[in-house]
Structure formats: structure tokens, C-alpha cells
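Help! Submission page says 'invalid entity' but I think these are all valid:
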Amino acid sequence: MSSLSLEDVERIAALARLELTADEKHLFVRQLTDILTYAEQVQRIDTSGIAATAHVHPDQRVEREDEPRPSLGVAAALANAPDADADAGLFKVPRVIG
Amino acid sequence: MQYETVIGLEVHAHLLTRTKIFCGCSTAFGAPPNSQVCPVCLGLPGALPVLNRLAVDYAIKAALALGCEVQRESIFARKNYFYPDLPKGYQISQYEQPLALRGSIDLDVDGAVRRVGITRVHMEEDAGKSLHEGFLDSARRSYIDLNRSGVPLIEIVSEPDMRSAAEAAEYFSRIKALLVWIGVNDGNMEEGSLRCDANVSVRPVGQTTLGTKAEVKNVNSFRYLEKALEFEIARQIEIVSQGGRVVQETRLWDSSTGRTQSMRSKEEAHDYRYFPEPDLPPLVVDAARVEAVQQTLPELPEARRARFVSAYGLPAYDAGVLTQSSEVAGYFEAAVAASGNAKAASNWIMGDVLRRTKEHDVAVSAFPISPESLGGLVRLIDKGTISSAMAKDVFAQMFESGRSADAIVAAEGLAQIGDAGALASIVAEVMAANVDAVAQYRAGKQQTFGFLVGQVMKASKGKANPQLANQVLRDALAEGAGQ
């Protein structure tokens, strides 16, 4: 049975942009290991001859016509942003590149 | 040691739909920032994507034009990464099961055909746009416009089949021409409708395994692509020939310095953690749909080029120039129909028409002289009504006024004097006014003939049919000499 390391959890947290306390890291080592263990149980089922399933509703053809629909409007779009320049109509975020 | 360059390209092309790939927001370029966004393309919780039917049809169309096999089932996948212009924290793309596989496109390299394999064509959504400069607090803040978020894209991935920067630029140019030709992309590279990343590596000639590659991003013109690749190839050969190793990395082309530079990121190496998109069912494209899209494909550039050679007897060069876009090809065929003279129509289009479209930055479809009208001009020349030299002036007037060649020739009295009797009286006047020159000619000074022809043309205000004027003058001079 595989077990996640503390480093695994730290790496996953970094990829998800999560800052975890030491307690949380240990908690997630245990919880994520439980999830992996469950996945391992599922993997023991013989699935030879069964195609990989990407979706539980296969062959469900849902497409829309290329017809424009109203957008939100700039004010509404920016309304919940932590920071925005209302005059320019732009979201503001901490500078991304060096 | 001799080195060989290996290049593969990833071309991203917007699809010309009115709305985004997963929502009904407009894709129009240039709208005020964040005016074309909704919960889906903003990545708001609970919003669900619904696939745009036309985007799928256009992607199929492009795949077919590239000779790819459209897959009956393809799967959308989440490509996870953090960047502020990607509001959901993942891009919906296709990964393990793309829309189409195994195509090719032929390049013309130094007169020989070079086939470049297409690995795959898949569908995805574009990200928004980050603005890093130009604001008072740009030192601390980046600004985000999400109008582009969710615009439908296809990514066309080539095999590593190109061996020089010039071949890569030719490939990109052919892909662009093809996508514009079939009407799925507008080819507007300034607006980012078509973009390209290049994977480049070098290896000693004879080695069959690939060298370590670098990915060059941010090249959005053919010229920059060629320059960026030339720089990158030289950089890698320099490293390898000195016993060093190329680092696998992403490098950004900087057109201001003419260099590629490492996009060193403090982030960890990319780990996109792709997984099937649970909000979208598999995309199922049955044979009937492929067939229906196939029916909408126009005759492709190569087929049309071949037909221009076989059906109209054009030189291969002409056929290549005339099939640079479907507008030019269509203009040519309409002009041939109106004139009945393919080579003359080709010459006018390759010369005056295309030159003026460039000079005046006007599309062939909006060119002031219709192909029918150009055909009318060619007919007047072929009938001998006007000379080729006069036709140039008539063409200029047609361009300025939009009037037909017939109308201009009639209004300006430009028809050639092609009547020997009328010319004879002009010749007689000229001979009478230039007694000395006539005497010199008759005394054996042949050069004087050219002067006298010039006088005849002048006296006729340029309207004399040159061949006929020559003949009438020569006869008149010969007659007089015998007296």
C-alpha cells in the first residue's frame, strides 16, 4: 500500500497555490493517503476489455448554435474582483512578470 | 562537425466563430476590455461550458484540409496551471484523445516538394490577455482583460520534420494561407488570431536520436519566426560544439534585442495534471458529420494550382502567385472568363493588380477594378483597340474612377488609329514637316527612322497603332526614295 510523503503534499499544495500549516500538512498526508488507498482498491477490479471511461454519460451530444448572447457588462464583471480599475474596465492583480 | 537542425511547430489559430467555444459571448476583436465576458468565461463557480457547434465544424474542416483523420471520439481535458489571465485555473483543451491525427502539408523548398507531417489537431479555449505595461502602478500590478478568454482555438502540432528556419517560416506561412483559404481563420497575426511556438534542437549530422529541445515562444510574424529560429539554432550549435549541453526550457523571443532568452520561472516545473473535463461529454463526430463538413471544403490551394497549370496553360510560377489566396484565385478565374486570355489576365494580376492592392492596402475582394472590368481591358488590347502602353494609363484611370475600360477609351478618345488611310495623312504631314530627316534617311541614315516614328506617334497624340505606323511610314519613305 502506497503512502504519500510530506514532500508530496507540499508539492501538491504548491501546485494548487495553497499555504498549509504543519498540522494541515500532516492531516492531508493521512487523508490523501486514504483516498489513494481507496483508488488502489478500485484498481484491483479486472477492467481488461473495458474501454477507458472519460465521462459517465458517454455519447451525449450537447452543442449550442453559434448565436451571440448578452455578456455580463463590465461593471458586473468586475463587481466581485478584489481589485480592479473601473475606468479602464480591467482586473488588477499583483504584477505577474519580473 | 556539421550539425543538423530539427524543428517542429505548434500553431494556434482562432476559429472564425461569432461566439466563444463554451459560451455565447462575442469573439469580436477590439471591444472595450471585459465587455465580452460572462460567468462561463470568467470561470465563476457553478457555470457550465456548452460546446459551440460551429467551432467543432471549423476544427473538423481544418483537420480535413490538413489531411488528418478525424477521430470518432475525442475528449476534452483540463490543463491545470495558475496564471491570472486563466480565470478557472485550468484551460479546457484536448490531450490524450485529440480531435484529429496524422495529416501532412507540402512545402515548396528550393523547388522541391517537402512533406511535413501533422501529428495532431486539437481544440481548446484561448486565455485572456495580461497587460504588464502602461499604467501608473505597472511596477506593482498587472491588468487583465478576459475578452479573449474562451475564444475557440485549434492547435496544429507538426512532426519534427523541418530542417531550417526558412522551412519553418514556409510551413507557418502555408498553414496560415490554408486556414484563411478554407475560411476558418482571418490570418490576422497582429491581433493574435494566429500564433506559433517552435520546438528546436540540433544534432550532429548522421545522428538519429533527437537533441535536447528548447521551446521558442512569442513569435507572431514569419520574419520573427525565422530570425528567432536562426538565433536559437546558432546558440545551440555554439553550446554543443563547445562540449556543453542544451537545457530543455522555454525561451522567449525578444524582437527588440533580436535574441531568445530563457523564461526562467521561479515556479516549479510545469505539471499540468491533465484529467478528463467532467463538465463536457466526449466529443463524438460520426462519419456523416465528417462527410457533411467535407462537402463545405473548397478546392484546396494545391489542387487549384495544378488546375491553373493544366486548364489554363499557365506557368507553375503564375499558378503559385495566383493561388496565394482564394480571393486572388477567384479574381483570376473571373478575369479569364471575361477576357478569354488567361496569360494576359495572369500578367495583369501578378503585376498591376497585386502591386496596387499592396500599395493601397486594399483587399483583392475590394479592388476598385472588378475582374470583369479587367477582362474588358484585356479584350481591348487583344482587339488592337488600344496599345499595351496605353492600357497602362487606362488601367490607372480605371483604378481611380472605377469606370470600365470601354467607357474610358470612348470618353478620352483613346482608341488607336488602326486605319492605314488615316495614318497615311499623318505620315505625310510629318514627312513634310521634317524634310531634312527624310532626306537623311533616304541618304542611308537608318537611325532617323526612329525619330520619324516618334514624330508620327506625337502627331497622333499617341493613338497611332505602333506596328501599323511603322509600316505606313516605311512604305511612304520607300515610295519617295524611288521618285
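Support: the input was valid. A stray whitespace character was the problem, and the output above is from the cleaned input. Residues 420-479 of chain B form a domain with the Arc Repressor Mutant, subunit A fold (CATH 1.10.10.410).
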